[in-house]
Automatic annotation (TrEMBL):
Protein origin, superkingdom: Bacteria
NAD as UniProt keyword: yes
One Pfam family, short name: GFO_IDH_MocA
Stretches assigned to the Gfo/Idh/MocA-like oxidoreductase N-terminal domain: 5-123
GO biological processes: inositol catabolic process
Keyword Oxidoreductase: yes
UniProt protein name: Inositol 2-dehydrogenase
Naturally occurring in which organism (per UniProt): Nakamurella alba
Primary role: Involved in the oxidation of myo-inositol (MI) to 2-keto-myo-inositol (2KMI or 2-inosose).
Reaction(s) the record says it catalyses: myo-inositol + NAD(+) = scyllo-inosose + NADH + H(+)
Length: 333
């Protein structure tokens, strides 16, 4: 009998505690054996809920003999050192986005994994595990839309904390569309342009919310993303792909339950990302556990994490300068 994959979860704040609970309650073949967080209280709480043991130091957690694989859900600035420590130990790691917080460090991680000759790093772009995105990619890959020419994305949040500025809108929200566009079109993004619109009245001083982001790809395709994070409405994430032989749209079914009652027609929209992508997180973890048990990954890898960092870096420069900014990426090792 194969024993469960023993997983350490580093950083058990909002995302890490969600992953730890999902792993211990909904995912087959995994046991959360170790949790770590800078907040001892937080770690103790999640350890009690999952039956794990608290290890105070993140690197001691990675080195723990009772750990076969690691989920990293610490803030982005901590990722580089923690991912490299997993590579040093030769164990699989699911690292939440961003892979790291700079192009140079992300590329260094890509090269360190390549030098090892094994795919051990998976990055937490969970939309690839959402049934609608997967179906859309398959449709495109099979030629169902002819040549895909345009991708239109919409990313609306009901609200965000006041410190969530224009740069964070690119790095924390648009980053998901960056990965979606690369996933759907299977090619790299080469330039980014950002148009800062008239701000909604609830946007803090100096924050451009909404913004329109326009990407071009190496194949000359165009993708757009409306990013609007203080709509006051709900969590609305939609994607349309327009090809030479038709178009396809996702994000209506799961976002909206449309009903006719009481002489009215309409429905409710998912309030947040957990309601919209809850199943995608479960599928992401289930497939990662199955792959990690075999010592590998099954999903977006270090290169995808690096590409997203590079595109977002260009995106932030585009916000600040108003220019169209070329994405700078090194060769794939
Ligand atoms: N894929 C997604 O949909 C998604 C959604 C939200 C957040 N995230 C990502 O998940 C990560 C965590 O985000 P969050 O919203 O859960 O943040 P959070 O602040 O709620 O949690 C982070 C936790 O990490 C702890 N911590 C900080 N530095 C640490 C370190 N060096 N070692 C150990 N613990 C440390 C903090 O005490 C905190 O409890 C970020 O990288 C974020 O971008 C991904």
């Amino acid at each position: 009998m194969v024993s469960d994959l023993k997983v350490a979860v580093l950083g058990v704040g909002m995302m890490g505690s969600y992953h730890a609970t999902t792993l211990s309650s909904l995912v087959r073949g995994a046991t959360v054996t170790v949790v770590n967080d800078f907040s001892a209280e937080r770690a103790a709480e999640v350890a009690a809920a999952t039956g794990a043991r608290v290890v105070d130091d993140p690197f001691a957690a990675i080195a723990d003999p009772d750990v076969d694989a690691v989920v990293i859900a610490t803030p982005g600035a901590a990722h580089e050192a923690q991912v490299l420590a997993c590579l040093d130990r030769g164990i699989p790691v699911l690292c939440e986005k961003p892979l790291t917080t700079s192009i140079d460090t992300a590329y260094a991680v890509v090269k360190a994994e390549a030098a090892l000759g094994r795919s051990l790093i998976q990055v937490g772009f969970m939309r690839r595990f959402d049934a609608e995105y997967a179906a859309l990619r398959e449709l495109i890959a099979k030629g169902g839309l002819g040549d895909p020419l345009l991708v239109h994305c919409t990313h609306r949040n009901p609200d965000v904390p006041p410190h969530f500025n224009s740069e964070m809108m690119i790095r924390d929200s648009v980053v998901h569309e960056v990965d979606v566009i690369r996933f759907l079109l299977d090619e790299e993004i080469t330039s980014v342009q950002v148009t800062r619109g008239r701000p909604t009245p609830s946007a803090p001083e100096g924050v451009s919310d909404p913004m329109m982001v326009t990407f071009t790809t190496e194949g000359g395709r165009i993708a757009t993303d409306e990013i609007f994070v203080r709509t006051g409405v709900a969590y609305e994430v939609r994607t349309e792909v327009v090809g030479s032989q038709g178009s396809a749209f996702i994000g209506l079914d799961q976002n909206m339950l449309v009903k006719s009652t009481d002489g009215r027609w309409g429905g409710s929209i998912t309030p947040g990302f957990v309601e919209r992508f809850g199943q995608a997180y479960v599928t992401e973890l289930q497939r990662w556990v199955a792959a990690a048990t075999e010592g590998t990954i099954d999903g977006p890898g270090a290169w995808d994490g690096y590409a997203a960092v590079a595109v977002c870096e260009a995106g932030v420069e585009a916000v600040l300068t108003g220019e169209t900014v070329a994405v700078q990426m090194g060769p794939r090792p």
